[in-house]
Amino acid sequence: MDHGRILIFAADHGVTVEGVSAYPREVTAQMVRTFSSGGAAITVLARTLGLEVEVVDVGVDAELPELPGVVAARVRRGSRNFVYEPAMNLEELEAALEAGRAAARRAVEADAVGLGDMGIGNTTAASALLSALTGASPAETVGRGTGVDDRGLAVKRSVVEATLGLHTPCFSDPRSALAAVGGLEIAALAGAAMEAARLRRAVLVDGFISTVAALAAVRLDPEIRPALFYSHRSAEAGHGLALAVLGASPLLDLGMRLGEGTGSALAFPILKGAAAILREMATFAQAGVADRADGGNP
Amino acid sequence: MDHGRILIFAADHGVTVEGVSAYPREVTAQMVRTFSSGGAAITVLARTLGLEVEVVDVGVDAELPELPGVVAARVRRGSRNFVYEPAMNLEELEAALEAGRAAARRAVEADAVGLGDMGIGNTTAASALLSALTGASPAETVGRGTGVDDRGLAVKRSVVEATLGLHTPCFSDPRSALAAVGGLEIAALAGAAMEAARLRRAVLVDGFISTVAALAAVRLDPEIRPALFYSHRSAEAGHGLALAVLGASPLLDLGMRLGEGTGSALAFPILKGAAAILREMATFAQAGVADRADGGNP
Question: Domains of chain A (ranges plus CATH)?
Fold first, then answer.
């Protein structure tokens, strides 16, 4: 457990036209540029903690030049607006899943892969998907994301409500639920988690978006469960529910809510430390340390 | 915040003759040897996470040769049994505090100093000191330490009860409380915390022992408070109370209860990451990222 790589999947969301985010969708592309230039929170953390970062553009809605550290794997320029139609068709879903799997396969040196996300509007998609996968109401799954006010929160809830009503018939199958109300980067995260687990890598799940993607991945392939480590408990409203459904106890609880893989990065040293203890620590017998006075187990 | 050093203070405790620990007191010296040879949990973690370790023998009750990484600063071979007399006289207390201060001064390269402890019997001393400093009953401050059974726990509680009865007049002054019912390594930890804070280093407080030492240090010098960062919430019974009295919200809550500075080591990367974010992350304006759609603050 020496090498870790954060995989950040970026995409836009058709649903942003409904006014569900505090930020305009242009921010997705701007943040991809900031990841590339190294000025974002995740790139600072990764540099400080000795982690690699790969950004995968799986559906940003902007002209982007070739950027260092950014892999172009765009399926389409943003998902469709799921208030009116499925976010992706099944071919697009498969392409997004495959973009995630390919990123996991590129992480050949990494003992652990950390999930990260960037996509204005993606808390709305993750909330809708969490409701779709669990049956929980939007009141339980929708939060403030990057910080919408009360009016914005009400808009977000009613958008998710309408979305769930439209797509209910899809929700019995995780694949069609993901296509209907997910997002391109959410599907890619699920693909990356499944492939990294298959390759026997530890998978560090980040916050709300990544955890909902992990839930979709577990529904698609329950055998990946033991590979998943939950980095932190996000301040985003629906995260507690997603963690509870997965039976997850996250490593950190620091009130963070940024995404980008920042939780994955901060949790990596803990995983690395735990692995080193298992590998290198002497037993009491090896160290010549005396037994318990009462003969019990240490 | 690039360099961190874990300071492990080791000492024995006269009170161990009362049967308060699951392990014999020889284990203190044996663990000092294991720290030196690199096979202990803290040395594995420190190596993995890029931290220095310095062990200070401030009162181990054993013949020890010169050992790599171990500083000989022994005040006496173990504290006195505080069931019958003060653990230290005031000269010994001052010497132990100074051993801690000196270790903090030696950490010239370190931006952060992590506290760690080793001393069979030291949860009993820390429980007694926590009761002395807060007025809390032994029922609230005494726990299972390295793992005493129910009978051992009852012994430990009655020992602390008797100790508190004997030394009550000393408890109005933190210095005399520390001398009466503390321990040599607990005093050294307090000295190290005060001196590191004075030298404007961040101080990472470990678990129960270190937190009680930090509480004593804060009572001796309240101005050090802003320098103290609390690594983790230990599973040891009295730790929650000690943290609450200090108003501390620890960074980690992983059910650990080992001491040695293992919590300090695991929390260091979080502190390092936070410092890097403050120093290196671009603002939205610097990164050319769009403002919020609603004009609010990010």
Answer: 4-287 (3.40.50.10210)
Q: Which two tokens stand for residue B20?
A: 């308060």
Distances (CA, A) of A235 to A268, A297, B136, B148: 20, 39, 34, 38
**B161 catalytic, yes or no?**
no
CB B24 within 8 A of CB A290: yes
Identify the active-site residue in A54, A94, A260, A280: A260
**DSSP symbol at A261:** T
What the block records as the tokens of B126 is 């820390």
Best of A27, A111, A149, A279 to mutate (most B CBs within 10 Å, chain B): A27
**Selection from A13, A21, A14 nearest residue A155 by Cα:** A21
The Cβ of residue B72 has, within 10 Å, a number of other Cβ atoms equal to 13
Longest dimension (CA), chain A: 70
What's the pTM value of the predicted model, to 2 decimals? 0.92
Alpha helices in B87-172 (DSSP H): 90-106, 122-134, 138-141, 150-167
- Calculate what percentage of chain B has a pLDDT beyond 90: 92
Residues 253 through 272 of chain B touching chain A, CB cutoff 8 Å:
253-254, 265-266, 269-270, 272
Using a CB–CB cutoff of 8 Å, tell me whether B135 touches chain A: no
C-alpha span between A276 and A272 (Å, rounded): 6
- For an interface test with B, the pick among A16, A232, A292 (most B C-beta atoms closer than 10 Å) comes out as A292
Closest chain B C-alpha to A39 CA, distance in angstroms: 5
Give ∠ CA A111-A191-A217 in degrees, rounded to 5.
Answer: 100
Contact in structure between B269 and A49 (CB atoms under 8 Å): yes
- Inter-chain residue contact A49 with B273, CB threshold 8 Å: yes
Q: Tens digit of pLDDT for each residue in B116-143? A: 999 999 999 999 999 999 999 999 999 9
ipTM (interface pTM): 0.89
What pLDDT, in 10s, does the model give residues B210-227?
999 999 999 999 999 999
Contact by Cβ (8 Å): B29, B70: no
